Amino acid sequence: MTEQSDVTEPSKLDNANASTHHTTSEQTLVNHRIDKYVGTIIDKRYELLSMIGQGGMSVVYKATDKKLGKFVAIKLLLPHLVSDPILFMRFQQEEKAASSLSHPNIVAIHDFGATENQEPYIVMDYLDGTPLNDAIKMLQVLAIERSVVIFSQIADALHHAHDNNILHRDLKPSNVLLLHQGPHHDLVKIVDFGIAKLIPQDGGESLHLTKTGEVFGSPFYMSPEQCKGEKLDCRSDIYSAGCLMYEVLGGKPPVAGANLMETLYKQLSEIPKSFSSTCPDRKIPEELEAIVFKSLHKDPSMRYQTMADLKRDLDDFLNKIEAGWFTRAKFKIQLLRLKVAPFVGREKKLLVVTAAAVAITACSFALYANIYLKDVSEPPPSAALAWSIKQPSAIESDHFTSAASAAKRVLKSFAASSGLESGLYLEQLDLLARLFESNGHYPEALEYREQAFKSLRKIDGANGAETLQAQLNYATTMRKSGDLLGAIKNYEEVFQLAPVDDLARKHAVQFLAETNYSAGRYGQAAKFYEQVLSGYSPTEKSSVLQLLRATTLCRLADCYRLTGEFHRAEELYEIGRNLLRANCELTDPRIFSATRLLGYVHYQQEHYKRARYLYEEALPQMESALGAANPEVVAAL
Q1: DSSP, res 333
Q2: Would the pLDDT of 635 be above 60?
Q3: Three-state helix/strand/coil letters over 335-383
């Protein structure tokens, strides 16, 4: 659960230099009072473990619910604001607003109350996710399909809030949390209803905690009517959603001034620039741009009138992308056919190869990476695995349950006889982790890995050899469970703590390359693959090491290909392909992958004859991998 900013105060809008109303000493006192809560227990139930975020009105702690035995997030009104009756009531209004909502894309409120000092608190889900603004910083821009899926979930959540007569009024990337559900699959959680407002019903008025003319929100995402302090309805949140969509797709807010007042003025008067002007390389489809700009209309009557309308158009756009993929692929094939000139007898083979490449892409469980078309924005994150023979997934044994029960009994016995920090106990933790992990029970395996890692860190220190290995194991299980960003964080810690020539550091570099790639962070992945590559000698005589060098070269080439650096990718694929040919059977599928992708990067550089030659060379292996009777191959023939 992450909090960024609850509210932008009016005084902050008037003068950027008047960003605080407290002296340095007063602020130090406030921070001290915030920190003192760590380690305390609220209502004999919630133990505050650490502070995880602070906004303009409140502070959020990670806590343990001692009654239910799980992590929660506790939001407390900042101590110096408790005496302000209006802010106190606003905080209570968030309790009322958010606790009345039940939606998979809105953070759940479980409890609320007040401390012994009458400081109000809210108990929420503890969400270990990534704020959308941090995702934008890490990736610069998100892929189009991934972005639209996120937008659709936001629209659905706010439609639910609006149906319950609640406006958010502060929608922005930092208030949207992404929970990683697997490679490029995000579950959205909208957080922070700190300045939410109840919509009047039946002509009545809600409790006035804000007055007409007051301005609350974040200037980059505020609607024109919000900037003017006018009465708001759901269309104001729709405008904010438009600002958010524009920033995610284009990399920056739709309007931005040199200061806060200029930004507010531009929200009232300036039409955002088209995506073709601000980010021409992104090639945002016109249909999607129209959805964003309709949401951004200055006149509320010209926007989408409900979040349901916005979601419908977003979902229609996604459906058309999926349905149109093969149409776009067909046009690519036709374009290639026209550009390479008549091939006479060999033309048919080229089209078979290209169509078969399309078939591989369409099959989400295909063994090898596809040729990524230039206008396909989200390549499958498993593409790097094309350079390794895939191992079959573990199949749960009929005896798993009894084996796990027996291992747990042994663990309990070691705990009683030898203690929780004994070698026997720690070895049994490792055995249990491997048992659960090999059978696909990642949450349980992760618990054992974490326990072993924390115990060893206490015994051996953070940079002890056994601790570093335990943290690597913990991160790897985390990666397998789908928490790529959590895995990256732990791998980075090992990388920083381990000595330069230590094996744990080398493993961390390799894992950082692989995991950043899987997370779609191709620039970061390239940096680590380059470090891995520097560990191999070009003159190495061992065929095993040369094969490892070849696969690393091809994976680094993948990163350059996916970031549009086709010339660099070409050089690396060429070297990697030659090494593969020299050190493995010519029928090895990795040679087929390297040949095909080398053809692709030549095609992207308009080296059409070379591309044709490479595609034709790949045809025999392609037919072998897909099968001569494959429907796509037959159809192409």
Answers
A1: H
A2: no
A3: HHHHHCCCCHHHHHHHHHHHHHHHHHHHCCCCCCCCCCCCCCCCCCHHH
